[in-house]
């Protein structure tokens, strides 16, 4: 178990947030915030890993307006042929 001391001016805010979010206690609310932060950090790590994988996946290309237009056209054509 971990006990955390907070300044008195923070406690009313924490209590009102916990009540507004439907939690039975401020401890339950803080626990939920910690879980959300863990999930956010895991998602961030996954995104960073995917970005690194993309950067290391081959020769770089310049993504110009024309390149994006061609990609959009390819996706539209692919979707039309799948439908």
What does this protein structure show overall?
70% of the residues lie in helices and 0% in strands. The protein is elongated. It has 83 residues and is mainly alpha-helical. The termini are far apart. The model has no long low-confidence stretch (mean pLDDT 93). The chain has a domain at 7-57. The protein has three helices and no strands.
Question: How would you briefly describe this protein structure?
Answer:
By secondary structure, this protein is an all-alpha fold. The chain has helices at residues 11-20, 26-55, 65-82.
Q: Strands, helices and their partners?
A:
Elements: H1 11-20, H2 26-55, H3 65-82
Helix fraction? 55-70%
The poorly predicted ranges are none
How many helices? The count is 3
Mean pLDDT: 93
**Count of extended strands:** 0
Our estimate of the beta-strand percent is under 5%
Question: CA-to-CA gap between the ends?
Answer: 56 Å
* Rg over C-alpha atoms, rounded to the nearest angstrom: 23 Å
Largest sheet: none
Query: What's the shape?
Result: elongated
SSE ordering? HHH
Q: Pairing-aware structural class of the strands and helices? A: mainly alpha
């Amino acid at each position: 178990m971990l006990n955390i001391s907070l300044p008195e001016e923070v406690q009313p805010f924490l209590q009102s947030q916990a009540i507004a979010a439907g939690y039975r206690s401020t401890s339950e609310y803080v626990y939920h915030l910690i879980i959300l932060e863990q999930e956010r950090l895991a998602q961030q790590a996954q995104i960073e890993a995917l970005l690194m994988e993309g950067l290391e996946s081959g020769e770089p290309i310049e993504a110009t307006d024309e390149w994006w237009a061609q990609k959009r056209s390819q996706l539209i054509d692919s979707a039309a042929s799948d439908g």
